[in-house]
Design goal:
The chain is α/β, with parallel strands linked by helices. It has twelve helices and 15 strands. Bound molecules: arginine.
Length: 417
């Protein structure tokens, strides 16, 4: 038996059948995100899950996936997601959700998100390394989901947005990822990396959904963030900073973080700094709509709705301003605040706020890939990249909403939807 097994493996390896034979994906149209051109009659040829060629004729004798009725795009990327939580876990309900339960939610949401066309996701904050388990489970083929880059638990100050302020003092609860002061913060960076983090997420300012803090107020100091960034970069990890507040955004950029999450109250100086340092701005604009319409019903705190009513409209305005001034932008939605799978609804909102469709799509492909440090493997349909692509109806450049109804998804050269 054993001998036979070895023979079969050897035979397959010799004929190239073992590791995913070649596949030709025929596209009616193909969006070249770099040039912004919609090209006709192209076939994407993949070998072992990687794009080998994009050519005008289909090579003979290999399996064909026929998308000739559709437009192909690179698989989409969401750089700000929380796959292990759902909107109903908001406010005090969150206290009843165990880490194992969060991991199970992650399995559910990873699948939903992949089938919605997001083949790569950066998960920025999860309790108890549930995101590390999810990433490893996907990579091992146990469950299906996007390629994941995960942060583990988000670092923050005592009482800040990344702590948990819901319980009364006699419960003595502090989130395990709290670290005050430069050296404690450095130690925490080392610790989350030890337990599997691909990047570091920090809370530079207060937030909307946390209790008792203010989105505009700084939390981590410049000195603490400099320590975090130095340590993270030394260990080859990027840093994503939650920052709504004007001062925190500037401090975080000066400290050298790689992306600003939310970016709500950014001013002209902050935009200029982002351009100068090539720091990506991530505006989770779709959240505002969801929080104002459904926040109370899913259990968000009344104070959170109050904070959102001020922060949301400012974020819209500053998104428009930052775009006009040419700041680097990547697509991130904060999934989990709103229901997973609705990620692509943010495209229509971004274009309504004045962004060109091609720029909204670039934010979710080539820009996002660069922010992740994966520009050589995702975010474009080019040789050497993973064969991750989606098929949609019609022309996404004249109607970005078509991205909300993805017809087919290919990850690693395999049809998953
Ligand atoms: N997680 C974020 C926070 O609690 C959500 C902010 C949503 N609001 C917005 N306008 N994007 O701060």
């Amino acid at each position: 038996m054993r001998f036979l097994g070895v023979l079969v493996v050897m035979a397959c390896a010799a004929t190239g059948l073992l590791h995913g034979a070649d596949t030709a994906i025929r596209c009616g149209k193909l969006l070249d995100v770099r040039s912004g051109e919609l090209k006709s009659g192209l076939t994407v040829v993949s070998h072992d899950g990687t794009i080998r060629d994009v050519m005008s004729s289909s090579p003979a004798g290999i399996a064909v996936i026929d998308f000739s009725a559709y437009t192909c795009l690179p698989g989409l990327i969401d750089v700000h997601d929380h796959l292990t939580s759902d909107p109903t876990d908001s406010g005090y309900s969150s206290l009843g959700v165990s880490i194992p339960r969060q991991t199970v939610k992650g399995v559910k949401n990873a699948r939903i998100t992949l089938l919605a066309g997001f083949t790569t996701v950066r998960n920025v904050g999860a309790d108890g390394f549930s995101d590390v388990a999810l990433r490893d489970g996907i990579n091992a083929g146990d469950v299906i989901g996007p390629r994941l880059l995960v942060s583990g638990p988000a670092l923050g100050i005592t009482g800040g947005h990344c702590d948990n302020n819901l319980l009364a003092p006699e419960f003595h609860y502090t989130a395990p990822s709290v670290a005050d002061g430069p050296w404690a913060a450095r130690t925490k960076v080392r610790e989350v990396i030890k337990f599997g983090a691909d990047l570091i997420k920090i809370c530079a300012s207060g937030g909307v959904l946390s209790k008792g803090d203010s989105p505009g107020a700084p939390q981590y100091s410049l000195e603490e963030m400099q320590a975090i960034v130095t340590e993270a970069h030394k260990l080859g990890r990027k840093v994503a900073a939650h920052a709504h507040g004007t001062q925190s955004i500037k401090d975080a950029i000066r400290a050298g973080v790689d992306s600003i999450e939310h970016s709500s109250l950014i001013d002209d100086e902050g935009i200029a700094l982002a351009k100068q340092h090539h720091t990506y701005l991530v505006f989770d604009t779709y959240n505002h709509e969801f929080i104002m319409q459904h926040g109370i019903e899913v259990g968000m705190l009344p104070e959170s709705i109050e904070k959102e009513s001020h922060v949301g409209p400012m974020q819209y305005e500053n998104f428009q301003h930052a775009y006009k001034l040419g700041a680097p932008m990547a697509f991130g939605t904060d999934g989990g605040v709103y229901p997973h799978g609705e990620n692509a609804r943010q495209f229509a909102l971004m274009t309504k706020l004045g962004m060109k469709p091609i720029d909204a799509i670039r934010a979710a492909t080539m820009n996002a890939a660069e922010l992740l440090g994966w520009a050589d493997r995702v975010g474009a349909l080019e040789p050497g990249h993973f064969a991750d692509l989606i098929a949609v109806d019609g022309d996404p450049l004249s109607n970005v909403s078509t991205l909300e109804h993805v017809r087919a998804v290919v990850k690693n050269g395999e049809l998953v939807k």
